[in-house]
Amino acid sequence: MLMVDGVDKSYRKRGWFLGELHPVLRGVSFACEAGSSLGIIGESGSGKSTLGRLLLGLEKPDRGKVELDGIPVADRRLRGGISAVFQDYASSINPFFTVEEAILEPVWRAKQPRREQRRKVDELLRQVGLPSSYGTKFPHELSGGEAQRVCIARAIATEPRWIVFDEAVNALDASVQLQVLDLLKALRVGRGIGYIFITHDIQAAAYLCDDLVIFKAGRIEERISVGRLAHAQSDYAKKLLRMVI
Ligand SMILES: Nc1ncnc2c1ncn2[C@@H]1O[C@H](COP(=O)(O)OP(=O)(O)OP(=O)(O)O)[C@@H](O)[C@H]1O
Questions:
Q1: How far apart are CA 153 and CA 156, in angstroms?
Q2: Which of 59, 105, 153, 226 is most deeply packed, by most CB within 10 A?
Q3: Beta-sheet strands, E only, within 69-166
Q4: Closest protein CA for atom 3 of ligand 1
Q5: CA pair distance 204, 197, nearest whole angstrom
Q6: What burial class does residue 14 get, using C-beta atoms within 10 Å of its C-beta: 0-12 exposed, 13-18 middle, 19+ buried?
Q7: What local confidence, expressed as pLDDT, does residue 115 receive?
Q8: Angle at 155 between CA 59 and CA 159, to 5 degrees
Q9: Which of 12, 22, 24 to mutate to test ligand 1, by most ligand atoms within 8 A of the CB atom?
Q10: Ligand 1 neighbour 199 (Cβ under 6 A)
Q11: Which segments constitute the ABC transporter domain (predicted)?
């Protein structure tokens, strides 16, 4: 179970006077069962990416807990247990790495035989729907959809229990976006990975997720199952739904 319990997070504002704190998350709590998929939706600046960084253990909350099965997410024991895929896939792959090197980077073991590493890359490429010949390509030789598949292969290389996606499909055109979402659905079923899917796109979130959390000004305004989305109460969810229906 992934659990966020009573989390507050503030950043210090730079202004005329040092020291003013700007609260970004306030009393955020939710829990997700292993293998489930939760969409985090909210206006720009409402704190979604901050929450994503806390879930990845990249930052610590000022108050409250973020835990996976009772272990704080920043704990070394959970290394590789929660992966990330970001929107900015072009810059999240080192331009000097081949696809193979990029995929192996998080799991690189110098002593592992070359043949074994090659086999792992082929298998991961196959799982994300890319031919094994892509292993020798460089990032600039990939389309946006292909680069995003490489990022997904890299994210699943550590065999994580959860993946945090932060605006991960927004930059893709609609048909490529749908292909990537279908890939994520298939991986979720095949590998039992849970997803935290941060987005502005309520349609994409409804396609991939079981539940949605609506964020406003650092607080959870509403948590609703996708099946009941038409009954959403929060203004932001209603506004987004009006745009897509
Ligand atoms: N490292 C930081 N230092 C100071 N302020 C920050 C930092 N990170 C985020 N903030 C501020 O926290 C607030 C929330 O930012 P965050 O990126 O979490 O929002 P968001 O909901 O993901 O926005 P968007 O949808 O536009 O990406 C913003 O006002 C932002 O300026």
A1: 5
A2: 153
A3: 71-72, 82-86, 162-166
A4: 11
A5: 9
A6: exposed
A7: 84
A8: 100
A9: 24
A10: no
A11: 2-242
Reported confidence tier of residue 90, pLDDT bands at 50, 70, 90: low
pLDDT confidence of 160, banded at 50, 70, 90? very high
Which residues are within 8 A (CB) of 154 and not within 5 positions of it... i.e. 6 or more apart? 83, 93, 102, 103, 105, 106, 124
Encoding tokens for residue 156? Answer: 């699943």
Query: Residue of the nearest CA to atom 6 in ligand 1?
Result: 11
Amino acid at the residue 213: V
User: Could you tell me the distance, in angstroms and rounded to a whole number, from the CA of residue 192 to the centre of ligand 1?
Assistant: 30
- Which pLDDT score, from 0 to 100, does residue 241 have? 80
Distance from the alpha carbon of residue 50 to the mean position of ligand 1, in angstroms: 6
- Regarding the beta carbon of 14 and ligand 1, being less than 6 Å apart is answered no
CB neighbour burial string for 117-135, b if at least 16 within 10 angstroms, e if fewer:
beebbbebbebbbbebebb
Residue type, 211: D
Q: Is 50 in the pocket of ligand 1 (CB under 6 A)?
A: yes
What does the alpha-carbon distance between residue 94 and residue 161 come to, in Å, rounded to a whole number? 25
